[in-house]
């Protein structure tokens, strides 16, 4: 085994590096604070440094049936749907795309990209925030 040069003892990295040799998946985060940080990192910069329990919801086989698979799976990995769920929980949907637009802006997408994404949502039955969860996220997760 070769020792890597970057031996930074950042808590997030340790388990991932160790598990590489086993060819297994990175450790799934369970600490609430670390989960929050990972969600924020993926959302804003798109960088993934650890696995989340949420990742296992993704159903690749089912998702690839959708023509907009590439875009939708990117949004899933960037935690868009997770965030929308979080923001919408406890609220009743006002049947607009208010929260969706907020999140897409937070994700640093340009206006043109945001419009493109919203068109894809609408095409897939997501006319408002709650419908995006019911009709769009549901095409990517579960059985
Ligand atoms: Zn709604």
Keywords:
143 residues, 2 domains, 53% helix, globular, binds zinc ion
Straight-line distance between termini: 40 Å
Content-based structural category: mainly alpha
For this entry, what is the oligomeric state of its chains? single chain
Number of strands: 0
Number of discrete domains: 2
Low-confidence stretches: 3-21
Radius of gyration: 17 Å
Bound molecules: zinc ion
Report on the biggest sheet. Answer: none
Q: Count of DSSP helices?
A: 8
Percent range for β-strand residues: under 5%
Basic shape: globular
- Tell me roughly what share of residues is in helical segments: 40-55%
Protein name: DUF2695 domain-containing protein
Organism: Desulfosporosinus hippei DSM 8344
InterPro entries: DUF2695 (IPR024248)
Topology:
Layout: H1 11-20, H2 32-45, H3 60-63, H4 69-77, H5 80-88, H6 98-106, H7 111-123, H8 129-136
The protein binds zinc ion (ZN).
Protein architecture, described:
This protein is mostly helical. It folds into two domains: 11-55, no CATH class; 57-139, no CATH class. It is built from eight helices and no strands. The chain is globular. The model is unreliable at 3-21 (pLDDT under 50). Pfam families: DUF2695. InterPro entries: DUF2695. This is DUF2695 domain-containing protein.
């Amino acid at each position: 085994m070769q020792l890597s040069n970057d031996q930074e003892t950042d808590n997030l990295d340790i388990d991932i590096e160790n598990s590489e040799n086993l060819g297994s998946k990175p450790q799934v985060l369970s600490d609430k604070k670390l989960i929050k940080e990972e969600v924020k990192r993926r959302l804003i910069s798109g960088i993934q440094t650890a696995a989340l329990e949420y990742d296992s919801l993704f159903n690749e086989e089912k998702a690839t049936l959708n023509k907009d698979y590439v875009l939708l799976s990117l949004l899933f990995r960037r935690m868009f749907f997770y965030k929308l769920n979080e923001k919408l929980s406890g609220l009743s949907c006002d049947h607009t795309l208010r929260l969706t637009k907020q999140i897409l802006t937070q994700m640093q997408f340009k206006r043109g990209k945001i419009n493109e994404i919203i068109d894809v949502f609408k095409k897939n039955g997501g006319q408002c925030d709650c419908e995006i969860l019911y009709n769009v996220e549901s095409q990517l997760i579960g059985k």
